[in-house]
TrEMBL record:
Residue ranges of the TM segments: 9-28
Residue stretches making up the Fe2OG dioxygenase domain: 560-674
UniProt name for this protein: procollagen-proline 3-dioxygenase
Pfam name, any one: TPR_leprecan
Entry's EC annotation: 1.14.11.7
Keywords: Dioxygenase, Endoplasmic reticulum, Glycoprotein, Iron, Membrane, Metal-binding, Oxidoreductase, Repeat, Signal, TPR repeat, Transmembrane, Transmembrane helix, Vitamin C
Enzyme class: oxidoreductase
Cofactor(s), names only, from the UniProt record: Fe cation; L-ascorbate
Superkingdom, natural source: Eukaryota
Organism: Champsocephalus gunnari
One Gene Ontology MF term: iron ion binding
């Protein structure tokens, strides 16, 4: 075992890894504990299963009590382990310190003395608060249930049945954070928001303490998107620190949790004490290393984010530099270089920062942050022992890091290690190609502030970024009124009447603007109420999308257009074209190169696009999204009365409309902009015409408070509750 024979210090480090595992096994073995009353007498898995049985038996009070107690017991067990770990750090310290001066049998005796004192301290500490049964390991099924936050799924319905709506909303929100694609729960949350007695503070993540680094991560990304580099740098600092804290907490739980004895695989049917100790120590080290993956996995996700900590450091040094803190950027960049010492981009940035500092030699000589130095050194020591175990003790280990230096890996394992690393890199590159970044500043997932409106499809279902389909935005009666308006305007000689579509010779195209509708209404050629509804629908859509996409700034309506496309009878056979070819709303799409040029004649000021459908009594006419190649369809949306499709107008959302082969398809097309200069002046003229006639209208952008809604605190934050409603029960959807 050449790795451990260099000198006494190396031996003691190895002993530390081996013996600390023995400690974790000993301390977690149920014992008598103290004579004090146990605060955790029942295992949390038993409480959970009993609570679920009560739930299905519709014993709502009992179910709520047991499910809450299961959650609290699990939290308390982790807290006890943490406290006991801190309390027993010094136990046996005197014996451990004497290891450097002892040799031979005395060395072994002092080692055992240290182990026993530490084990006795931990066993007594845990035992005085936790019963022997509550210290036993739980099944993987229970790990999954709590990892997916399923207890809160049961609790939200339980509290609803008990008419404790504030608690029901809190449970629903907590479950949804880890299950963001659960549309029924999202709709439940919106219903809770409208209920009397449900306050905004109810919509808090009860598991936030364990996931706060993701809150900080999302907040930092949002500050970057709005170019607030000072706040972004501050948030990235907090995110790095919280990630390190969460990693340490995970590692501590590895040490304190129950450890199963390794399987006996000796040739003669048994293993020596040292072999078993080595197996246990390697299991502990592997658990500690897996904390990298655990902390880097967002709630509700299966896969972790590769290079999570280095990625944060990369974001942070850029934010620091742009905020003017060049000295801080140098330190963060040097910390990043500990992970990837030869990265060309990082080295180029370091040279740039040094040139920017000029004669500031003190800042140029800034060393990496000590907490990152310690993180790297500890990780490398553990990896060396684990790879030694792989090579010599048949231990299985999956390295969670891409940055691991090749010289840490034994020669006999390097070929396989390189192949695994290459596969990961290939998957990451392919993922980057598939998942584009939307720099629009919108963040899907905000609240829907209109009673009765439900989310039919979100980013996950639509396979994209910043896309949503909302249903029941209009009533059937409202759809009929706008369809009548379209027919009346066409008959009145609008000037848009029945001309050939600019996109296909197989359809006719009819359109109406808000101002034209108002003028026709004043001339009594269309119904005044219908014209006002046309105007107000634009405001309704803007409010919904401003809230759902969490726009950090005010939105101005750029253009509103009532459009009807009609199939030309007898001209549809063999048709292969589209009603509207694939395009991007604010840039010129070039499918051959996957480029999108944001320049005229594109409507470069458009930021958010929407279609509000009025009918479905036609064939074809589906909206579809594609990749930038304009060929690979990623999602389809079928129109129906009151269905609203909203999406960011940039290159992440190429879209088109399939051919209308029978009937007449009508919809409101709307575009919104963040730039006041490009607001729709016709809407203001229409509002002025109504005002001149003594009629009030929905408040327009000029009357809105500048600044719009405040930026959300994180990617899952919800805004204030509006309205009220009524729900009916089911497990997942109210």
């Amino acid at each position: 075992m050449a790795l451990l024979q260099a000198d006494h210090l190396t031996v003691y480090v190895a002993f530390h890894f081996v013996l600390i595992t023995l400690l974790s096994f000993t301390s977690a073995t149920p014992g008598r504990g103290s004579a004090n009353v146990l605060s955790l007498p029942q295992p949390y898995d038993f409480l959970y299963y009993t609570g679920v049985r009560s739930y299905f038996g519709e014993e709502w009070v009992k179910a709520a009590e047991l499910l809450e107690k299961a959650i609290l017991t699990k939290e308390s067990l982790s807290r006890v382990r943490r406290q006991c770990h801190e309390e027993c750090v010094e136990a046996g310290r005197e014996a451990f310190n004497r290891l450097d001066s002892e040799k031979g049998s005395l060395h072994d005796l002092w080692t055992l003395d240290w182990v026993q004192q530490r084990a006795e301290c931990l066993r007594f500490c845990v035992g005085r608060s936790v019963s022997p049964a509550a210290q036993l390991p739980v099944s993987t099924d229970i790990d999954y249930e709590f990892g997916s936050r399923n207890p809160y799924n049961f609790l939200q319905v339980t509290y609803y049945k008990l008419e404790k709506l504030q608690k029901a909303a809190s449970a629903a929100h907590t479950y949804f954070v880890a299950n963001p694609s659960h549309l029924e729960m999202r709709n439940n949350i919106e219903k809770y928001r409208r209920m009397k007695g449900v306050m905004e503070e109810a919509f808090q993540d009860r598991e936030l303490e364990n996931e706060n680094h993701w809150v900080l991560y999302d907040s930092a990304v949002q500050y970057e998107a709005s170019s607030d580099w000072l706040k972004a740098a501050e948030k990235w600092k907090e995110c790095v620190n919280e990630t390190l804290r969460q990693t340490d907490e995970c590692r501590l739980q590895c040490e304190m949790a129950s450890q199963r004895l390794p399987e006996d695989r000796g040739e003669d049917g048994s293993k020596s004490v040292y072999e078993q100790a080595a197996d246990l120590s390697l299991s502990l080290l592997s658990c500690r290393q897996s904390c990298v993956t655990q902390v880097a996995t967002r709630p509700g996700r299966i896969s972790s984010q590769e290079d999570f900590l280095p990625t944060q450091l990369e974001h942070r040094h850029i934010a620091q530099f742009k905020a003017g803190d060049v000295g801080g950027a140098v330190q963060t960049l040097r910390s990043l270089l500990l992970f990837y010492p030869s990265d060309h981009d990082s080295l180029d940035n370091l040279q740039l920062y040094s040139e920017t500092l000029g004669g500031d030699t003190e800042s140029q000589g800034t060393q990496p942050a000590q907490e990152i130095v310690g993180y790297i050194n500890r990780a490398l020591d553990e990896k060396k022992l684990l790879y030694f175990g792989m090579e010599n003790l048949d231990f299985s280990f999956t390295d969670p890091d891409l940055w691991t230096p090749e010289d840490v890996v034994p020669e006999s394992l390097r070929d396989n290690w390189r192949a695994v690393k290459e596969n990961i890199n290939v998957r990451m590159v392919e993922g980057e190609k598939k998942e584009e970044v939307d720099d629009s500043g919108f963040y899907a997932g905000g609240p829907v502030p209109q009673m009765g409106v439900t989310i039919a499809m979100d980013d996950t279902v639509l396979n994209g970024t910043n896309r949503v389909v909302l249903d029941d935005v209009m009533t059937e009666k409202e759809c009929e009124k706008i369809l009548q308006l379209a027919t009346a305007a066409t008959s009145a000689g609008d000037g848009y009447r029945g001309r050939r579509s600019p996109h296909t010779p197989h359809e006719t195209f009819e359109g109406l603007t808000v101002l034209r509708a108002v003028k026709l209404a004043q001339d009594d050629m269309v119904n005044q109420t219908d014209a006002r509804l046309f105007y107000e629908l634009g405001e309704r859509v803007k409010v919904l999308l401003h809230s759902y996409f969490r726009s950090p700034s005010i939105l101005y309506t750029s253009f509103t257009h009532l459009v009807c496309r009609s199939a030309i009878a007898g001209d549809q056979e063999g048709r292969l074209d589209l009603s509207h070819p694939v395009h991007v709303d604010n840039c010129l799409l070039e499918p051959e190169t996957n480029q999108c040029w944001r320049e005229p004649p594109a409507f470069i000021h458009r930021d958010l696009s929407a279609f509000l459908y009025l009918n479905d009594n036609f064939d074809g006419g589906d909206l579809f999204f594609t990749n930038r190649d304009a060929k690979t369809v990623t999602a389809r949306v079928k129109p129906s009365c009151g269905r609203l499709v909203g999406f960011s107008s940039g290159p992440v959302n190429p879209h088109g409309v399939s051919a209308v082969t029978r009937g007449r398809r009508c919809a409101l097309a709307l575009w919104f902009t963040k730039e006041k200069l490009y607001r729709d002046m016709e809407r203001e003229e229409a509002a002025a015409m109504w005002a001149a006639g003594g009629q009030s209208v929905v408040k327009n952008e000029e009357e809105e408070k500048e600044g719009g809604a405040p930026p959300a605190r994180n990617a899952r934050n919800q805004a204030s509750r509006q309205g009220r409603g009524r729900v009916t029960g089911a497990r997942d959807e109210l």
